[in-house]
Amino acid sequence: MAGSPGSVGNFPSGPLKVEQKKGSVLSASYIVYHFSTNGISVATATGLTHPLDVLKVRLQMQLVGQRGPLIGMGKLLSQILKMEGPKAMYQGFTPALIRSVLYGGLRLSLYEPSKYFCDRAFGSSNFLVKFTSGAFSGAIATALTNPTEVLKVRLQMNSNVEKRGALREMRKIASEEGIKSFWKGVGPAMSRAAMLTASQLATYDECKRALIRWTSLEEGFRLHLISSTIAGAVSTLATAPMDMIKTRLMLQRESKKVGGYRNGFHCAYQVILTEGPWALYKGGFAIFARLGPQTMITFLVCEKLRQHAGLKAI
To answer: Mind listing the pLDDT tens digit for each residue in 46-80?
Structure first.
């Protein structure tokens, strides 16, 4: 990175001006720094919160097609540890980590360019522009990385599958269900990712601006912590139903006994009809327990890495 640290991170003025001479919009170093800092931050958060993701998937698959009392997160955790052992809490960890680098790196890296071009196109960078930019970034990133998510939830749901290993399970899915099965649930997954990224990044972005404007907080740990906590709560409320539908569709093979879900809307309808409206929030506490800390860790690590890399704050 030649020049001052700030020259790399300022998207509209730094790398853009440098690369205009070469006829390019973005420098290679800008892309590498952004993708790597974003990917590493999401991977760090994923590694620390993965057991909660396993619990979330197991909770979402309770009483498929039935109404009845649900097992709580604490009881389910004790059952898994007793029957499957501590290793079960890291089932599907390898595809989860690969996905976090690819998906996390893409969705966060696409946000700022999307916001910049929306700003240039519409002459504004208000909340709606930020929300739209986040939605676009999340949807594209998920569409490209959905196979890793399918593999992850398959491994998380079944300890016998985990023993076969990720590569063998990939070959099994491809041979028995076809390549298209890796894009099971891609519609709800894209909707969830669009809403997640939009609510997460737009809320974090706006919270930071508002707190800097109306309080004595300045760019730093306290500002990032408060903003990321609010963003985590908002994104959980917005995405929990879509997360639940996505999980059900991706585990379609395991749910044949209750009939196949044709698409996300049909899945939502069947879940509400057979399990009740609140079933869409099955695993909701586990989602918040995971997504809240994950959001905080992601933004805290990302902001620190961006600072060290010479990039400006989000």
So the answer is: 999 999 889 888 888 887 777 777 788 889 899 99
Compute and round to an integer the Cα radius of gyration of the chain.
20
Nearest to 173 by CA among 182, 165, 160, 164: 182
What is the distance, to the nearest Å, from the Cα of residue 289 to the centroid of all Cα atoms in its chain?
Answer: 14
Q: 3-class DSSP state for residue 86? A: helix
Domain boundaries, given as residue ranges, for the chain: 48-60+70-306
- One-letter amino acid of 197: T
Taking only the tens place, the pLDDT of each residue in 141-167 is: 999 999 988 888 888 877 665 566 778
**DSSP letters spanning 245-269:** HHHHHHTGGGGGGG----SHHHHHH
CB atoms near residue 87 (< 10 Å): 11
Tell me the whole-structure pTM to 2 decimals: 0.74
CATH fold of 48-60+70-306: Mitochondrial carrier fold (1.50.40)
